[in-house]
Write a structure and sequence with these properties.
This protein is α/β, with parallel strands linked by helices. It has 3 domains: 1-113, Rossmann fold (3-Layer(aba) Sandwich), CATH 3.40.50.720; 115-147; 150-210. Helices cover 47% and strands 14% of the residues. The strands form 2 sheets. Strands 3-2-1-4-5 form a 5-stranded parallel sheet, sandwiched between helices. A two-stranded antiparallel ribbon has the order 6-7. It starts with 13 loop residues before the first strand and ends with a helix. The structure holds ligand PQ2 and nicotinamide-adenine-dinucleotide. Nicotinamide-adenine-dinucleotide binds next to helix 1. It comes from Sporomusa ovata. Residues 124-145 form the Siroheme synthase central domain.
């Protein structure tokens, strides 16, 4: 099945997790990183989840899931080790309008969590459509080795210059042409070597040739 790729903004969004084991922990870490208001329904938590609960990073409902728990959530993760409970909770959450993933039932899920590499605002994601999470993990390790933290720094610089270029280059067509030509191998090599001011200068010089200042 063809999936639609999307990057969600979760700041302040209510997200629910049923279960407090290894899989729930992995999903919770991603939710907290994205700023979601996270509630975990489970009689037991992993030590890491307990620590997060103690410091107030997540809300813990210290009992098994009960019908009626899942109103008003944006995303719900059903991650107990009880397939029947996972399905019951998922059906309730879906009926209440949430998007749901079921840890042991990809076919019944609304979305899958991709493997990812993040450096600042740069986010590289991998999906196998549920076919092989182990392959996602392997590819994530390869991407992490190829695209290190320096790419996050490039992005910070390029985003800053892009804001400036919106004023300096008159039309969207000019800007598109400019960026397609400017993020070339030479600029990337400078950035990779940590020569940020040289890269910045190279980009500014290129803008002088086609912008209103030329
Ligand atoms: C990417 C990642 C994100 C994350 O969880 O944060 C993620 N699983 C990861 C790892 C992983 N998961 C599993 C293994 C053991 C090896 C293996 O089975 O391959 C490993 C590898 C390991 O741990 O080494 C077991 C497993 N996974 C699912 C089932 C249920 C089933 O298939 O029925 C079973 C039990 C199968 C069984 O019982 O045998 C289902 C899903 N897992 C997904 C995501 C979604 C599809 C993503 C995709 O399209 O690839 C999907 C559909 C739903 C979801 O959970 O969103 C994370 C990578 C973390 C990283 O980057 O290191
Ligand atoms: N999607 C994935 O990435 C992935 C990866 C590995 C395994 N799995 C599947 O995910 C499921 C969970 O795996 P795990 O390793 O986290 O299991 P686990 O045994 O570590 O954790 C299960 C958790 O569910 C809680 N729980 C049990 N019944 C509950 C209930 N009625 N209400 C609320 N909480 C309840 C337990 O207290 C425990 O915290 C398994 O079915 C496994 O096959 C999914």
């Amino acid at each position: 099945m063809e999936l639609y790729p999307i990057n969600l903004k979760l700041t302040g969004r209510r997200c629910g997790v049923i279960g407090g084991g290894t899989v729930a922990e992995r999903k919770v870490m991603g939710l907290l990183t994205a700023g979601a208001e996270t509630s975990v329904f489970s009689p037991v938590l992993t030590p890491r989840l307990s620590g997060l609960q103690e410091t107030g990073r997540l809300a813990w409902i210290p009992r098994t899931y009960q019908a009626g728990d899942l109103h008003n959530f944006f995303l719900v993760f059903c991650a107990t080790n009880d397939p029947e409970i996972n399905r019951q909770a998922a059906a309730e959450a879906q009926a209440a309008g949430a998007l749901v993933t079921i840890a042991d039932a990809p076919d019944l899920s609304d979305f899958y969590v991709p493997a990812h590499v993040a450096h600042g605002d740069l986010l590289l994601t991998i999906s196998t459509g549920g076919g092989s999470p182990a392959l996602s993990r392997r590819l994530r390790e390869e991407l992490a080795a190829t695209y290190g933290p320096e790419y996050g720094h490039y992005l910070t610089l390029l985003a800053k210059l892009r804001t400036e270029m919106k004023d300096r280059l008159a039309t969207a067509k000019d800007r598109e042409k400019f960026w397609r030509e400017t993020i070339d191998q030479e600029t990337l090599d400078l950035l990779k070597q940590g020569k940020f001011s040289e890269a910045e200068e190279r980009i500014r010089n290129a803008a002088c040739c086609i912008g209103p200042e030329s």
